[in-house]
Amino acid sequence: MKPFLLTTLFSTAVVSIGVAFSPLTFAKETLNVYTYDSFASDWGPGPKIKASFEQECGCELNFVALDSSVGILSRAQLEGKSSQADVLLGLDLNLMEAAKKTGLLAEHSVDTSNVTISGGWSDRFFVPFDQGHFAFIYNAETLQTPPTSLKEVVDNQALRVIYQDPRTSTPGLGLLLWMKSVYGNDAANAWARLASHTVTVTKSWSDAYGLFLKGEADVVLSYTTSPAYHIVAEDETKYQAAMASEGLYPQIEVAAMMKDAPHPALAKQFMQFILQPGFQSTVATGNWMLPVIELDEALPAAFDDAFKPSKNLVLPAAEVAKHRGAWVDEWLNATTR
Amino acid sequence: MFSLRTVKGLLPALLGVGFFLLMGAASLVALLRYSDWHSWLGYMQQPYLWRVVRFSLWQALLSSGISLLIAIPVASCLIHRSFYGRAALLQLFSVSMVVPTIVAILGLVVVYGRSGWLYQLFDIHIPLYGLVGILLAHVFFNMPLAVRLLLQGYDLIPSGQWRQASQLGFSRWTAFRWIEWHYLKKVLPGAFVLIFMLCFSSFAVVLSLGGGPKFSTLEVAIYQALRFDFDLNKASFLALLQVSICTLFAVVVYRIAPVNRQDVSLLAVKRYSLKDSFWAKSADALALLVAFILVIPPFLAIFDPVFSPIFLLTLQSAALWKAVLVSLQIAFPAALVSLLLGVSFCVLARFCMARRYLALLPNKIEHLGNLILMVPGLVIATGLFLFLRDLGWGFQSSYWIVVWVNAVMALPFVLRALMPVMYQQERRFRAVYLSLGVRSWSRWCLEWPLIRLSVAQALGYALLLSLGDMGVIALFGSQGLVSLPLYLFQLIGAYRLEEGACVAVVLILLCLLLFYGSTRFIGGRSLVKH
């Protein structure tokens, strides 16, 4: 009995200590880029970008994969000045003001004149790296008459809608702003009308999209580029993005470098690299978003339908930052009435 | 009062509990340093906050109540009947609580959803989104847990009582009324509080199946304050609010609940069969049927991807096995730390038992360990990180934070598994040990065969919980630290739902394997029940 007790305890301890100390990651001259997980994953654009940037800089590029774009920012804030991050990659338009306010970011010196975002790009802190528009995705086989405007999504009581919580996800926040730019002061009523045929509001994009693919809703809030994934990767054409005659709200994903970056030179080089073809050509079929510069090579035909919106709605970042709390409250009150 | 030798013997336990308290206090202080008390009054006046609190309480009450109501007859049935697949069912029960929420939700949708099995087979349509969905998910997660906790209560029933019941020709109902209930009602409050807390702070389930912000929990507000706004002030306010509500609730429950007085018997191996009847049979059948319907179909739905060709492809990816390794690298140390902490708590608690001035302490010590459940893991991790950052340790400590927070989060489950048996040992053998002068290590060796099964179960819980953890790893994950649940979320985030489902199967299989392994390896072919 006693020897057996000892062996069990001892071997458990050995196993635990063994796995605890087996090497995780160690590197020398390494550029740390904080990004969200699907960007850095094997099938995302991360590995290709890593390979081509490492060739250029002779350094090592280390992606630190966090769970969401919000996660990137809160991790950087958590670590503060002592952060190991050189570059934050994957914040979006609506998080820019909040990120700037942390005082952790440095101005970049990248020439953004060739950026193809409508209205151009002139931010001193952020370099855009991909773009897309929020859109409701539907299954063409089960939905005969898809909505053609945001108003139809809101008012068609027969339509079962899933979207994300603006308090916990960036697409949800995008919809909040989309609604605000279409409805203005009448947004509260619109939310109430939408709430009466909303199936559910999820924590994150993946929850919502998963439920939609299981057939729980007619439309789900996602991106205009989502159908391209199904076409390219699954050869499936039934998922399509609904038109919105009022215009679409953009999501522009951005990168910024840290003021206290441990490797400022490398960080600068990487910021330049973002607008190079070596980075941009990986965006479409890696991150399923559109590049922000003209590329020599055309995108796969599947992206033809990721249409340019009739009108690009966008609220000024400062206004978004100022009113976000109030607008979220408005949404809360309207949908819990 | 106590000899130096006694104190020396208690030292490791004191150190363990002390370290736990120190770390807890440190992370709390680190968070509170960023607080601004004056703004708290403003938060208190938000009507939405109180609506959320009310709903959180309501759904948690319902969830834990229903889970226990179903669990009682199921546990009774499992005790009295042996049937084919009973052991497998118990293993499955222990795994269900660690299924990643998104996987469980998709599983539930396959069964109860719009075009789900229930609808296809029976044409029954369930309004899944709203309170019903939340309750279904919570019962799926917690009813099996409740069953396991109740079975521990059954373990305390001396075989002499069963023998008598058998000799007197008790029916199942009589036995339940006169024997089982008296033991169950001591376990029920603890189980109720545990499940209540789990449901009160439930987050992903409530958001996904709740239907909208009308059904939201406090945890969402904490998540938002911490992750979206990085508002440490608000986050600490909300976390404190949550802790206060849960504490209040626990205090009330323990006040009105019967005291958990431990009984002496332990080696109750022999089971005496009671008089069987048609009613007993049908009641058992009904209980099992309900349990089956609630737990098995969603599980089958989760395992469904095994039959797709993608499953084999997923198995071949190196990233999967790397994630498995990382998960084990987190789970094993976390489980071991959790077990050490748990043992420290138990040793201290049982030392205090029935001693002058200290007799009040055991319950307090146990509650102290449970307290951790009321604080969101995210808050603990953030506080701890801030604390370590102020000490000058940054990024490199994240692995250990993940391990520690997982260990601490598993502590309540470890305590639930260890405490009853440890108390019992003390009660039964203290006099003998004292008179013979058996202490410390020799005492452990004598006790080992009697407690090893509980130790195995505790370790199993801790392993599984750390393996399935998503909250803390999401905060600190990095490229080298992608655990299995994080990998799963990466896949889903990149539209690869089917591969994600396959990874979920791997995760669950791993959970089953580890739980089975730990009960076999450490629990041994034990004399003790289950």
Automatic annotation (TrEMBL), chain A:
Protein name as annotated: Thiamine-binding periplasmic protein
GO molecular function: thiamine binding; thiamine pyrophosphate binding
Predominant location: periplasm
GO cellular component terms, semicolon-separated: outer membrane-bounded periplasmic space
Protein location: Periplasm
UniProt KW keywords: Periplasm, Signal, Transport
Family under the similarity heading: Belongs to the bacterial solute-binding protein 1 family.
Matching CDD domains: PBP2_TbpA (cd13545)
